[in-house]
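Tutorial, part two.
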Amino acid sequence: MTRRQNRKFNKERHDKDVSKEAFKFPLDIDISDDAGTKSSPPLYSEPEYVRRPERQTKYRASKPSVKRPTRMTISKARQVPSSIHGLKKPERTERDEREIYLEKFKNYNSVIVDKIVRERTERERRKDKQKMKEQQQRAELAALKKKRDAEKANGEVVRQKSPAREKKNDTLSVLGTKQEKLREKQQASTGKRIGPNATQPGISMLGNAQAADYKEPDKALSEKIDAAFTKLNVEGRVISYTSNGVIGRYEVKLNRAFRVSNIPRLNAALKEELNLGELRIMSPLIGTSNIGLEVPLENVRPITFRTLFEASSLKLRKSDYKFVIGKTVDDKIFSYELSKAGHVLIYGNQPNYDTNVIDNILLSLLMNHNPNDLKVAIAADNDNYDDYLDIPHSFSSRVSPGDPEALKIFMHELNERSVQFRRAHVRNIQSYNSRVKFESRKATLVIIIDDLSALLQNKNPEAVRSLIQILKQGKPLGMHVIANYTTTDSGIRYELLQLLQTKIAFYDAYNNTVGGTDELTQGNDALAVIPTSNKPNRISIGAVNKIVKQSVFDHIKHNNR
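Running the prediction step on this input gives:
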Protein backbone atom coordinates (compact mmCIF):
# COMPACT_ATOMS: atom_id res chain seq x y z
CA MET A 1 0.00 0.00 0.00
CA THR A 2 2.84 2.36 0.75
CA ARG A 3 4.32 2.05 -2.72
CA ARG A 4 0.94 2.52 -4.36
CA GLN A 5 0.28 5.65 -2.23
CA ASN A 6 3.65 7.09 -3.14
CA ARG A 7 2.87 6.69 -6.83
CA LYS A 8 -0.37 8.74 -6.46
CA PHE A 9 -0.52 12.37 -7.49
CA ASN A 10 0.69 14.59 -4.61
CA LYS A 11 -0.98 17.95 -4.91
CA GLU A 12 1.07 19.60 -2.17
CA ARG A 13 4.35 18.67 -3.75
CA HIS A 14 3.06 19.86 -7.11
CA ASP A 15 2.03 23.23 -5.68
CA LYS A 16 5.36 23.53 -3.98
CA ASP A 17 7.18 22.95 -7.21
CA VAL A 18 4.99 25.41 -9.08
CA SER A 19 5.57 28.05 -6.43
CA LYS A 20 9.29 27.75 -7.00
CA GLU A 21 10.90 30.66 -8.72
CA ALA A 22 10.77 30.27 -12.48
CA PHE A 23 11.14 32.46 -15.45
CA LYS A 24 7.98 34.42 -16.27
CA PHE A 25 7.24 36.33 -19.37
CA PRO A 26 7.46 40.10 -18.60
CA LEU A 27 3.78 40.70 -19.52
CA ASP A 28 2.62 38.15 -16.92
CA ILE A 29 4.44 39.77 -13.99
CA ASP A 30 2.08 41.63 -11.61
CA ILE A 31 3.10 45.16 -10.74
CA SER A 32 1.35 46.98 -7.90
CA ASP A 33 1.47 50.74 -7.45
CA ASP A 34 1.63 52.73 -4.25
CA ALA A 35 -2.15 52.60 -3.78
CA GLY A 36 -2.08 48.84 -3.84
CA THR A 37 -3.97 48.49 -7.06
CA LYS A 38 -2.66 46.18 -9.70
CA SER A 39 -1.98 47.55 -13.12
CA SER A 40 -0.56 45.97 -16.16
CA PRO A 41 2.87 47.19 -17.28
CA PRO A 42 3.28 49.12 -20.47
CA LEU A 43 3.87 47.05 -23.55
CA TYR A 44 7.31 48.39 -24.34
CA SER A 45 8.66 49.17 -20.88
CA GLU A 46 11.62 47.22 -19.51
CA PRO A 47 11.16 45.25 -16.25
CA GLU A 48 12.54 46.73 -13.08
CA TYR A 49 14.59 43.62 -12.28
CA VAL A 50 16.37 40.96 -14.34
CA ARG A 51 16.16 37.36 -13.29
CA ARG A 52 19.29 36.07 -15.13
CA PRO A 53 21.93 37.13 -12.57
CA GLU A 54 19.82 35.62 -9.82
CA ARG A 55 19.52 32.38 -11.75
CA GLN A 56 23.27 32.28 -12.34
CA THR A 57 23.89 32.86 -8.65
CA LYS A 58 21.51 30.13 -7.72
CA TYR A 59 23.12 27.74 -10.25
CA ARG A 60 26.58 28.41 -8.90
CA ALA A 61 25.37 27.77 -5.36
CA SER A 62 23.74 24.48 -6.27
CA LYS A 63 26.43 23.35 -8.77
CA PRO A 64 28.15 20.16 -7.58
CA SER A 65 31.85 20.58 -6.88
CA VAL A 66 32.70 17.26 -8.54
CA LYS A 67 31.20 15.95 -11.72
CA ARG A 68 28.77 13.20 -10.94
CA PRO A 69 29.76 9.85 -12.32
CA THR A 70 27.60 8.23 -14.94
CA ARG A 71 27.51 4.81 -16.49
CA MET A 72 29.96 5.98 -19.21
CA THR A 73 32.44 7.45 -16.75
CA ILE A 74 35.71 5.48 -16.49
CA SER A 75 36.90 5.50 -12.93
CA LYS A 76 40.66 5.56 -12.24
CA ALA A 77 42.39 2.75 -10.50
CA ARG A 78 43.42 3.44 -6.95
CA GLN A 79 46.81 4.99 -6.53
CA VAL A 80 49.39 2.42 -5.49
CA PRO A 81 52.21 3.87 -3.42
CA SER A 82 55.68 3.48 -4.94
CA SER A 83 58.59 2.14 -2.99
CA ILE A 84 60.75 4.96 -4.37
CA HIS A 85 58.50 7.97 -4.80
CA GLY A 86 55.68 7.07 -2.39
CA LEU A 87 52.34 8.59 -3.26
CA LYS A 88 54.04 11.56 -4.91
CA LYS A 89 54.31 11.29 -8.68
CA PRO A 90 57.85 11.55 -10.08
CA GLU A 91 58.60 14.80 -11.83
CA ARG A 92 58.63 14.52 -15.61
CA THR A 93 62.09 15.22 -16.95
CA GLU A 94 62.74 16.75 -20.33
CA ARG A 95 63.88 14.06 -22.78
CA ASP A 96 66.72 14.54 -25.21
CA GLU A 97 66.03 14.48 -28.94
CA ARG A 98 68.55 11.67 -29.38
CA GLU A 99 66.64 9.44 -26.93
CA ILE A 100 63.41 10.11 -28.79
CA TYR A 101 65.13 9.31 -32.12
CA LEU A 102 66.70 6.10 -30.85
CA GLU A 103 63.42 4.97 -29.23
CA LYS A 104 61.76 4.89 -32.65
CA PHE A 105 63.97 2.03 -33.79
CA LYS A 106 64.34 -0.04 -30.59
CA ASN A 107 61.71 -2.57 -31.72
CA TYR A 108 63.08 -2.91 -35.28
CA ASN A 109 65.07 -6.00 -36.08
CA SER A 110 66.86 -4.92 -39.25
CA VAL A 111 70.52 -4.76 -40.24
CA ILE A 112 69.92 -1.58 -42.25
CA VAL A 113 68.16 0.20 -39.36
CA ASP A 114 70.90 -0.87 -36.95
CA LYS A 115 73.50 0.53 -39.33
CA ILE A 116 71.63 3.85 -39.63
CA VAL A 117 71.29 4.17 -35.85
CA ARG A 118 74.94 3.25 -35.36
CA GLU A 119 76.10 5.79 -37.92
CA ARG A 120 73.96 8.54 -36.38
CA THR A 121 75.22 7.75 -32.90
CA GLU A 122 78.81 7.82 -34.11
CA ARG A 123 78.19 11.10 -35.92
CA GLU A 124 76.68 12.67 -32.83
CA ARG A 125 79.61 11.45 -30.75
CA ARG A 126 82.10 13.00 -33.15
CA LYS A 127 80.10 16.23 -33.16
CA ASP A 128 80.13 16.36 -29.34
CA LYS A 129 83.84 15.69 -29.30
CA GLN A 130 84.47 18.45 -31.82
CA LYS A 131 82.26 20.82 -29.83
CA MET A 132 84.20 20.14 -26.63
CA LYS A 133 87.44 20.70 -28.49
CA GLU A 134 86.19 24.02 -29.84
CA GLN A 135 85.09 25.14 -26.38
CA GLN A 136 88.49 24.21 -24.97
CA GLN A 137 90.25 26.16 -27.70
CA ARG A 138 88.02 29.18 -27.11
CA ALA A 139 88.75 29.02 -23.38
CA GLU A 140 92.50 28.85 -24.04
CA LEU A 141 92.35 31.77 -26.45
CA ALA A 142 90.28 33.81 -23.97
CA ALA A 143 92.74 33.06 -21.14
CA LEU A 144 95.70 33.99 -23.36
CA LYS A 145 94.04 37.24 -24.39
CA LYS A 146 93.21 38.07 -20.77
CA LYS A 147 96.80 37.44 -19.75
CA ARG A 148 98.15 39.68 -22.52
CA ASP A 149 95.73 42.45 -21.62
CA ALA A 150 96.85 42.22 -18.00
CA GLU A 151 100.54 42.39 -19.01
CA LYS A 152 99.84 45.36 -21.26
CA ALA A 153 97.94 47.13 -18.47
CA ASN A 154 100.86 46.60 -16.04
CA GLY A 155 103.28 48.06 -18.59
CA GLU A 156 105.12 44.82 -19.29
CA VAL A 157 106.67 44.26 -22.71
CA VAL A 158 104.87 41.64 -24.74
CA ARG A 159 107.20 39.21 -26.47
CA GLN A 160 107.14 39.34 -30.26
CA LYS A 161 106.26 36.12 -32.03
CA SER A 162 108.78 34.62 -34.38
CA PRO A 163 107.79 34.50 -38.08
CA ALA A 164 107.62 30.70 -38.06
CA ARG A 165 105.42 30.68 -34.96
CA GLU A 166 103.22 33.40 -36.43
CA LYS A 167 102.79 31.43 -39.62
CA LYS A 168 101.94 28.32 -37.63
CA ASN A 169 99.33 30.10 -35.54
CA ASP A 170 97.94 31.76 -38.64
CA THR A 171 96.96 28.37 -40.05
CA LEU A 172 95.09 27.45 -36.86
CA SER A 173 91.46 28.30 -36.36
CA VAL A 174 88.68 27.33 -34.03
CA LEU A 175 87.51 24.60 -36.42
CA GLY A 176 90.98 23.19 -37.16
CA THR A 177 93.68 23.72 -39.77
CA LYS A 178 93.12 25.09 -43.24
CA GLN A 179 94.17 21.77 -44.76
CA GLU A 180 91.45 19.94 -42.84
CA LYS A 181 88.84 22.49 -43.88
CA LEU A 182 89.93 22.19 -47.52
CA ARG A 183 89.79 18.40 -47.30
CA GLU A 184 86.25 18.47 -45.84
CA LYS A 185 85.13 20.90 -48.54
CA GLN A 186 86.56 18.70 -51.28
CA GLN A 187 84.90 15.60 -49.86
CA ALA A 188 81.53 17.37 -49.57
CA SER A 189 81.68 18.66 -53.15
CA THR A 190 82.76 15.43 -54.83
CA GLY A 191 81.04 12.94 -52.56
CA LYS A 192 83.86 10.47 -53.20
CA ARG A 193 86.18 8.65 -50.86
CA ILE A 194 89.41 10.58 -50.26
CA GLY A 195 92.44 8.44 -49.65
CA PRO A 196 95.88 7.58 -50.96
CA ASN A 197 95.50 7.23 -54.72
CA ALA A 198 98.06 5.57 -56.96
CA THR A 199 99.40 7.88 -59.64
CA GLN A 200 98.42 7.00 -63.19
CA PRO A 201 100.98 6.63 -65.97
CA GLY A 202 101.72 9.93 -67.71
CA ILE A 203 101.20 10.66 -71.40
CA SER A 204 104.88 11.55 -71.78
CA MET A 205 105.88 7.89 -71.45
CA LEU A 206 103.74 6.86 -74.46
CA GLY A 207 106.45 7.65 -77.01
CA ASN A 208 106.07 9.69 -80.19
CA ALA A 209 102.90 10.78 -81.95
CA GLN A 210 101.96 10.09 -85.57
CA ALA A 211 103.72 12.09 -88.29
CA ALA A 212 102.02 15.40 -88.98
CA ASP A 213 101.98 15.09 -92.78
CA TYR A 214 99.76 12.01 -92.95
CA LYS A 215 96.81 14.04 -94.28
CA GLU A 216 98.52 15.27 -97.43
CA PRO A 217 96.89 13.79 -100.58
CA ASP A 218 98.63 12.18 -103.53
CA LYS A 219 97.88 14.70 -106.28
CA ALA A 220 99.18 12.42 -109.00
CA LEU A 221 96.77 9.63 -108.02
CA SER A 222 93.91 12.13 -107.81
CA GLU A 223 94.57 13.22 -111.40
CA LYS A 224 94.77 9.59 -112.52
CA ILE A 225 91.35 8.88 -110.98
CA ASP A 226 89.78 11.83 -112.84
CA ALA A 227 91.37 10.66 -116.10
CA ALA A 228 90.15 7.09 -115.52
CA PHE A 229 86.54 8.25 -115.09
CA THR A 230 86.80 10.28 -118.29
CA LYS A 231 88.23 7.30 -120.17
CA LEU A 232 85.51 4.97 -118.84
CA ASN A 233 82.90 7.50 -119.99
CA VAL A 234 81.56 7.88 -116.43
CA GLU A 235 80.66 11.35 -115.21
CA GLY A 236 82.59 11.72 -111.95
CA ARG A 237 85.36 13.78 -110.32
CA VAL A 238 87.31 13.82 -107.06
CA ILE A 239 86.05 16.53 -104.69
CA SER A 240 87.83 15.75 -101.37
CA TYR A 241 90.42 13.53 -99.72
CA THR A 242 90.75 12.07 -96.20
CA SER A 243 93.33 9.71 -94.74
CA ASN A 244 94.37 8.15 -91.44
CA GLY A 245 97.99 7.62 -92.48
CA VAL A 246 97.51 4.02 -93.66
CA ILE A 247 94.53 4.19 -96.08
CA GLY A 248 93.40 7.16 -98.15
CA ARG A 249 89.84 7.83 -99.28
CA TYR A 250 89.02 9.88 -102.39
CA GLU A 251 85.46 11.15 -102.37
CA VAL A 252 84.03 11.10 -105.91
CA LYS A 253 80.87 12.87 -107.01
CA LEU A 254 78.99 10.87 -109.64
CA ASN A 255 76.11 11.69 -111.89
CA ARG A 256 72.75 11.13 -110.23
CA ALA A 257 71.73 8.78 -113.07
CA PHE A 258 74.54 6.35 -112.18
CA ARG A 259 73.12 3.05 -110.93
CA VAL A 260 74.33 1.39 -107.75
CA SER A 261 74.26 -2.02 -109.47
CA ASN A 262 77.16 -0.89 -111.67
CA ILE A 263 79.50 -0.41 -108.65
CA PRO A 264 81.16 -3.88 -108.88
CA ARG A 265 81.92 -3.42 -112.59
CA LEU A 266 83.24 0.09 -111.89
CA ASN A 267 85.51 -1.32 -109.19
CA ALA A 268 87.03 -3.90 -111.53
CA ALA A 269 87.46 -1.34 -114.31
CA LEU A 270 89.18 1.18 -112.01
CA LYS A 271 91.56 -1.46 -110.65
CA GLU A 272 92.64 -2.31 -114.18
CA GLU A 273 92.85 1.31 -115.34
CA LEU A 274 94.75 2.60 -112.28
CA ASN A 275 96.88 -0.53 -111.98
CA LEU A 276 95.91 -0.95 -108.32
CA GLY A 277 95.89 -4.39 -106.76
CA GLU A 278 93.59 -3.38 -103.89
CA LEU A 279 90.72 -0.91 -104.25
CA ARG A 280 87.54 -0.76 -102.22
CA ILE A 281 84.52 1.37 -103.10
CA MET A 282 82.24 2.67 -100.35
CA SER A 283 78.79 3.42 -101.77
CA PRO A 284 77.31 5.67 -100.65
CA LEU A 285 79.25 7.63 -98.06
CA ILE A 286 77.33 8.39 -94.88
CA GLY A 287 75.42 11.64 -95.19
CA THR A 288 76.07 12.09 -98.91
CA SER A 289 75.20 10.54 -102.26
CA ASN A 290 78.88 10.29 -103.27
CA ILE A 291 81.13 7.25 -103.34
CA GLY A 292 84.53 6.76 -101.74
CA LEU A 293 87.57 5.10 -103.29
CA GLU A 294 89.68 3.60 -100.50
CA VAL A 295 93.28 2.99 -101.52
CA PRO A 296 96.21 1.76 -99.35
CA LEU A 297 99.00 4.33 -99.21
CA GLU A 298 102.50 3.67 -100.46
CA ASN A 299 104.14 5.84 -97.79
CA VAL A 300 102.49 4.63 -94.60
CA ARG A 301 102.46 6.87 -91.52
CA PRO A 302 102.05 4.43 -88.60
CA ILE A 303 99.32 5.20 -86.05
CA THR A 304 100.93 5.26 -82.61
CA PHE A 305 99.17 4.60 -79.32
CA ARG A 306 99.99 8.10 -78.09
CA THR A 307 98.02 9.61 -81.00
CA LEU A 308 95.02 7.41 -80.19
CA PHE A 309 95.21 8.25 -76.49
CA GLU A 310 95.54 12.03 -76.91
CA ALA A 311 92.89 12.35 -79.65
CA SER A 312 90.24 10.37 -77.72
CA SER A 313 88.40 10.89 -74.44
CA LEU A 314 90.94 8.66 -72.68
CA LYS A 315 93.08 11.74 -72.04
CA LEU A 316 90.41 12.92 -69.55
CA ARG A 317 91.51 10.00 -67.30
CA LYS A 318 87.99 8.86 -66.48
CA SER A 319 87.17 5.49 -64.94
CA ASP A 320 84.71 4.49 -67.68
CA TYR A 321 86.53 1.38 -69.02
CA LYS A 322 86.88 2.86 -72.50
CA PHE A 323 89.46 1.51 -74.93
CA VAL A 324 90.86 2.53 -78.34
CA ILE A 325 91.91 0.26 -81.20
CA GLY A 326 92.80 2.46 -84.15
CA LYS A 327 91.50 5.01 -86.64
CA THR A 328 88.77 4.81 -89.23
CA VAL A 329 89.48 5.74 -92.85
CA ASP A 330 87.94 9.21 -92.36
CA ASP A 331 90.55 9.91 -89.62
CA LYS A 332 88.30 9.35 -86.58
CA ILE A 333 89.33 7.52 -83.42
CA PHE A 334 87.63 4.16 -82.96
CA SER A 335 86.93 3.92 -79.21
CA TYR A 336 84.29 2.00 -77.29
CA GLU A 337 83.32 1.17 -73.72
CA LEU A 338 84.07 -2.31 -72.44
CA SER A 339 80.73 -2.55 -70.61
CA LYS A 340 78.90 -2.01 -73.92
CA ALA A 341 81.27 -4.07 -76.05
CA GLY A 342 80.70 -7.20 -73.94
CA HIS A 343 82.91 -9.95 -75.36
CA VAL A 344 85.34 -9.26 -78.21
CA LEU A 345 86.31 -11.61 -81.06
CA ILE A 346 89.47 -10.98 -83.09
CA TYR A 347 89.25 -13.06 -86.26
CA GLY A 348 91.97 -13.49 -88.88
CA ASN A 349 95.41 -14.97 -89.27
CA GLN A 350 97.49 -11.79 -88.89
CA PRO A 351 100.04 -12.69 -86.17
CA ASN A 352 101.50 -9.24 -85.55
CA TYR A 353 98.41 -7.10 -85.84
CA ASP A 354 95.99 -9.20 -83.76
CA THR A 355 98.49 -8.83 -80.90
CA ASN A 356 98.37 -5.07 -81.40
CA VAL A 357 94.58 -5.12 -80.97
CA ILE A 358 94.85 -6.79 -77.56
CA ASP A 359 97.74 -4.52 -76.54
CA ASN A 360 95.72 -1.40 -77.47
CA ILE A 361 92.72 -2.58 -75.43
CA LEU A 362 94.73 -3.54 -72.36
CA LEU A 363 96.95 -0.45 -72.39
CA SER A 364 93.88 1.79 -72.69
CA LEU A 365 92.42 0.17 -69.58
CA LEU A 366 95.69 0.12 -67.62
CA MET A 367 96.33 3.82 -68.21
CA ASN A 368 93.16 4.87 -66.34
CA HIS A 369 92.38 2.05 -63.88
CA ASN A 370 94.17 0.80 -60.77
CA PRO A 371 94.38 -2.84 -59.60
CA ASN A 372 91.26 -2.40 -57.44
CA ASP A 373 89.17 -1.65 -60.55
CA LEU A 374 90.73 -3.94 -63.18
CA LYS A 375 92.11 -7.47 -63.32
CA VAL A 376 93.68 -9.26 -66.31
CA ALA A 377 93.83 -13.03 -66.88
CA ILE A 378 95.75 -14.78 -69.68
CA ALA A 379 94.91 -18.12 -71.33
CA ALA A 380 97.67 -18.78 -73.91
CA ASP A 381 100.29 -21.34 -74.88
CA ASN A 382 102.95 -18.78 -75.86
CA ASP A 383 104.59 -16.01 -73.84
CA ASN A 384 103.32 -13.03 -75.87
CA TYR A 385 101.33 -11.67 -72.93
CA ASP A 386 103.52 -12.66 -69.99
CA ASP A 387 104.33 -8.98 -69.37
CA TYR A 388 100.77 -8.49 -68.11
CA LEU A 389 101.30 -11.18 -65.44
CA ASP A 390 104.05 -9.22 -63.62
CA ILE A 391 101.89 -6.20 -62.79
CA PRO A 392 99.47 -5.88 -59.81
CA HIS A 393 96.50 -6.13 -62.21
CA SER A 394 97.17 -9.84 -62.78
CA PHE A 395 94.29 -12.11 -61.71
CA SER A 396 96.08 -15.48 -61.86
CA SER A 397 98.95 -17.26 -63.54
CA ARG A 398 98.87 -18.12 -67.23
CA VAL A 399 96.76 -21.15 -68.20
CA SER A 400 96.77 -23.18 -71.40
CA PRO A 401 93.63 -23.16 -73.61
CA GLY A 402 94.14 -26.87 -74.30
CA ASP A 403 94.00 -27.79 -70.61
CA PRO A 404 90.70 -29.53 -69.65
CA GLU A 405 90.51 -27.34 -66.53
CA ALA A 406 91.70 -24.16 -68.25
CA LEU A 407 88.58 -22.13 -67.42
CA LYS A 408 87.83 -23.73 -64.05
CA ILE A 409 89.15 -20.78 -62.04
CA PHE A 410 87.05 -18.38 -64.11
CA MET A 411 83.92 -20.48 -63.60
CA HIS A 412 84.53 -20.41 -59.85
CA GLU A 413 84.75 -16.61 -59.97
CA LEU A 414 81.60 -16.46 -62.11
CA ASN A 415 79.57 -18.57 -59.66
CA GLU A 416 80.87 -16.64 -56.66
CA ARG A 417 79.92 -13.30 -58.18
CA SER A 418 76.51 -14.59 -59.20
CA VAL A 419 75.73 -15.64 -55.61
CA GLN A 420 76.99 -12.38 -54.12
CA PHE A 421 75.05 -10.24 -56.59
CA ARG A 422 71.87 -12.21 -55.94
CA ARG A 423 72.25 -11.78 -52.20
CA ALA A 424 72.77 -8.03 -52.67
CA HIS A 425 69.62 -7.89 -54.88
CA VAL A 426 71.52 -6.42 -57.84
CA ARG A 427 72.03 -7.55 -61.43
CA ASN A 428 75.23 -5.85 -62.57
CA ILE A 429 78.63 -4.90 -61.23
CA GLN A 430 77.92 -1.15 -61.24
CA SER A 431 74.98 -1.53 -58.83
CA TYR A 432 76.91 -3.95 -56.64
CA ASN A 433 79.94 -1.65 -56.26
CA SER A 434 77.68 1.29 -55.40
CA ARG A 435 76.10 -0.61 -52.48
CA VAL A 436 79.05 -2.29 -50.79
CA LYS A 437 82.08 -0.91 -48.98
CA PHE A 438 85.25 0.07 -50.82
CA GLU A 439 87.08 -3.06 -49.66
CA SER A 440 84.29 -5.37 -50.93
CA ARG A 441 84.00 -3.96 -54.45
CA LYS A 442 84.51 -6.24 -57.42
CA ALA A 443 87.06 -5.49 -60.13
CA THR A 444 86.27 -5.83 -63.83
CA LEU A 445 87.95 -9.02 -65.07
CA VAL A 446 89.31 -9.20 -68.65
CA ILE A 447 90.09 -12.76 -69.83
CA ILE A 448 92.46 -12.99 -72.82
CA ILE A 449 92.16 -16.24 -74.80
CA ASP A 450 95.02 -16.14 -77.27
CA ASP A 451 93.92 -19.08 -79.45
CA LEU A 452 90.19 -19.79 -79.32
CA SER A 453 90.44 -22.31 -82.16
CA ALA A 454 92.72 -24.51 -80.03
CA LEU A 455 90.18 -24.52 -77.22
CA LEU A 456 87.26 -25.38 -79.52
CA GLN A 457 89.03 -28.01 -81.61
CA ASN A 458 90.76 -29.82 -78.75
CA LYS A 459 87.75 -32.10 -78.06
CA ASN A 460 87.40 -30.59 -74.62
CA PRO A 461 83.64 -30.38 -73.90
CA GLU A 462 84.12 -29.20 -70.29
CA ALA A 463 86.12 -26.15 -71.34
CA VAL A 464 83.64 -25.33 -74.12
CA ARG A 465 80.71 -25.52 -71.69
CA SER A 466 82.56 -23.23 -69.26
CA LEU A 467 83.32 -20.78 -72.07
CA ILE A 468 79.66 -20.65 -73.18
CA GLN A 469 78.55 -20.12 -69.57
CA ILE A 470 81.00 -17.22 -69.15
CA LEU A 471 79.88 -15.67 -72.44
CA LYS A 472 76.21 -15.89 -71.42
CA GLN A 473 76.47 -14.60 -67.84
CA GLY A 474 79.79 -12.79 -67.62
CA LYS A 475 78.98 -9.36 -69.08
CA PRO A 476 76.71 -8.00 -66.28
CA LEU A 477 78.94 -9.63 -63.66
CA GLY A 478 81.99 -7.69 -64.89
CA MET A 479 83.75 -10.57 -66.72
CA HIS A 480 84.72 -9.92 -70.35
CA VAL A 481 86.36 -12.34 -72.81
CA ILE A 482 88.72 -11.15 -75.57
CA ALA A 483 89.28 -14.15 -77.83
CA ASN A 484 91.70 -14.39 -80.75
CA TYR A 485 90.70 -16.88 -83.47
CA THR A 486 93.63 -17.54 -85.80
CA THR A 487 92.41 -20.50 -87.88
CA THR A 488 90.45 -19.00 -90.78
CA ASP A 489 90.03 -22.33 -92.64
CA SER A 490 87.16 -23.35 -90.36
CA GLY A 491 84.45 -20.97 -89.23
CA ILE A 492 82.86 -20.53 -85.82
CA ARG A 493 79.47 -21.92 -84.90
CA TYR A 494 76.65 -19.42 -85.27
CA GLU A 495 75.49 -19.78 -81.65
CA LEU A 496 78.99 -19.04 -80.35
CA LEU A 497 79.43 -16.20 -82.83
CA GLN A 498 76.27 -14.49 -81.53
CA LEU A 499 77.61 -14.50 -77.96
CA LEU A 500 80.70 -12.54 -79.06
CA GLN A 501 79.02 -9.18 -79.60
CA THR A 502 82.01 -7.10 -80.80
CA LYS A 503 83.90 -8.50 -83.79
CA ILE A 504 87.19 -7.28 -85.28
CA ALA A 505 87.93 -9.22 -88.49
CA PHE A 506 91.07 -9.01 -90.63
CA TYR A 507 91.38 -10.19 -94.22
CA ASP A 508 89.33 -13.34 -94.83
CA ALA A 509 88.64 -14.67 -98.31
CA TYR A 510 85.62 -16.66 -97.07
CA ASN A 511 83.84 -13.90 -95.07
CA ASN A 512 83.18 -16.27 -92.18
CA THR A 513 82.45 -13.63 -89.54
CA VAL A 514 81.98 -10.17 -91.11
CA GLY A 515 80.87 -9.51 -94.67
CA GLY A 516 83.33 -7.52 -96.76
CA THR A 517 86.57 -8.84 -95.26
CA ASP A 518 87.56 -10.29 -98.66
CA GLU A 519 88.06 -6.72 -99.95
CA LEU A 520 90.56 -5.81 -97.21
CA THR A 521 94.31 -5.72 -97.56
CA GLN A 522 96.48 -8.14 -95.65
CA GLY A 523 98.13 -6.64 -92.59
CA ASN A 524 97.00 -3.60 -90.64
CA ASP A 525 93.45 -3.46 -92.04
CA ALA A 526 90.29 -4.68 -90.33
CA LEU A 527 86.52 -4.35 -90.13
CA ALA A 528 84.94 -3.74 -86.72
CA VAL A 529 81.32 -4.48 -85.81
CA ILE A 530 79.91 -3.16 -82.52
CA PRO A 531 76.59 -4.17 -80.85
CA THR A 532 74.98 -0.77 -81.41
CA SER A 533 75.56 -0.75 -85.19
CA ASN A 534 75.06 -3.29 -87.97
CA LYS A 535 77.35 -1.52 -90.43
CA PRO A 536 81.03 -2.46 -90.09
CA ASN A 537 83.69 0.24 -89.78
CA ARG A 538 87.00 -0.07 -91.59
CA ILE A 539 89.80 0.71 -89.16
CA SER A 540 93.59 0.74 -89.18
CA ILE A 541 95.03 -0.78 -86.00
CA GLY A 542 97.35 1.37 -83.91
CA ALA A 543 100.92 0.21 -83.36
CA VAL A 544 102.20 -0.36 -79.80
CA ASN A 545 105.92 -0.06 -79.16
CA LYS A 546 107.54 -2.51 -76.75
CA ILE A 547 109.44 0.32 -75.07
CA VAL A 548 106.14 2.13 -74.41
CA LYS A 549 104.64 -1.02 -72.90
CA GLN A 550 107.63 -1.53 -70.63
CA SER A 551 107.55 2.09 -69.46
CA VAL A 552 103.88 1.79 -68.51
CA PHE A 553 104.47 -1.53 -66.74
CA ASP A 554 107.44 -0.14 -64.77
CA HIS A 555 105.40 2.84 -63.63
CA ILE A 556 102.48 0.63 -62.56
CA LYS A 557 104.71 -1.78 -60.66
CA HIS A 558 106.58 1.04 -58.93
CA ASN A 559 103.48 2.98 -57.84
CA ASN A 560 101.07 0.16 -56.92
CA ARG A 561 103.13 -2.17 -54.79
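Residues 191 and 242 are 45 Å apart (CA to CA). In part three we will examine how such features are distributed along the chain.
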